Each structure stands twice: as C-alpha cells, then as structure tokens.
Amino acid sequence: MRMMSSYFEICWHVMGLIFNPSQSLQSVSWEKMISASIPARMKQCEMVAKVADKFEIDPYLMIALAYHESRFETGLTSSAGAKGVMQVKRQFVDCAGCSEIEYGVKAYSIWLAHSKGDTCLALGRYTVGNKGKCGKRSKAIIKLASELACLASKDDDCHDC
C-alpha cells in the first residue's frame, strides 16, 4: 500500500471537485471560505487514505465514499444520526477507541463481508443498511474511485482519467 504522503495529489484533485470555481461566483468571501476550508479537508482526505491502508481497504474507494458522504467536512451529523467525514453511526460498529474515520472504514469492511465482496452492494448497504442495493450512488462512488486510482497510477494507457 502507498504511504499517506502519496495521497496529497489525489486529495488535491478531490478538492477541485468540491471547490470548482466555475460553479461558484468568485468573491472575497468565497476565497476566504476556500482558503480556510481546504487545509482541514485535505487533512481529512489524507487521513481517510491512511486509515483505509491500515484496514487494507481500497483507499481510493474510501476517499470517494467520504467525498460523497461529507465532502470531507468534519462535525456533520445527518438527520439519521450518522456523524463525521464518513457519516457513520458508531453504535452499529464494534471499534472501541476508533476515530470517526476508522469507524467508517471498518463499517464499510463489515458491509463488504456481508455483501460477499460485492463492492457496489456494500456501498449501498453502508448508506441504508441491509435494505441497501447497488444503485446510482454506489456506482458514482466506484467511478470516482476508479478515476482517482487511474490518476494516481499516472499510467499512459489509462485514458479514462
């Protein structure tokens, strides 16, 4: 697996997806918000990759999942009570002493096992539990993860990046 520092470029690319200047009016307040928010989100993105490596889960998939769940914004709580960058409910995961990111990655690994290795189904279940299925959202996460892995590989034969 790659070291955390190698994820900087990938996380920087993901920040471009979050803060695409063509989607927002550029103003002084917008620029201040961006400059204050990017370092914290970069740190969270790199931490997601590091934790995924630790749990031997695809780090690009976990970066894509966190992007879809929270855009790497800390302190979020969903209407269902899911928290943090990974938007996970701690009471459903046995991971005493884990960080919110560790809870999220472990939760995904549990759903992956329950889904018999079906990544798309595991992502659907991550979001809504056993009733989850492989849908558009799961496929979008897998597509982004594939694009990030392609970018990281810097493979000349990779044309989808």
Q: Could you explain the architecture of this structure?
A:
The protein is an all-alpha fold. 58% of the residues lie in helices and 0% in strands. It is built from six helices and no strands. It has helices at 8-18, 28-54, 59-70, 100-114, 119-128, 136-153.
Annotation, overall tally of beta strands: 0
Strand content: under 5%
Helix content: 55-70%
Helices and strands, in order, run as HHHHHH
Computed CA radius of gyration, to the nearest angstrom: 16 Å
Shape: globular
Q: Which structural category do the helix and sheet elements fall into? A: mainly alpha
Uncertain runs are 1-5
Termini, distance in Å? 21 Å
Main sheet attributes: strand count, strand direction, barrel closure: none
Roughly what is the average pLDDT, rounded to an integer? Answer: 83
How many helices? 6
List keywords for this structure.
161 residues, mainly alpha, 58% helix, disordered N terminus
Write the layout of secondary structure elements.
Blueprint: H1 8-18, H2 28-54, H3 59-70, H4 100-114, H5 119-128, H6 136-153
Helix pairs in contact: 1-2, 1-6, 2-3, 3-6, 4-5, 5-6
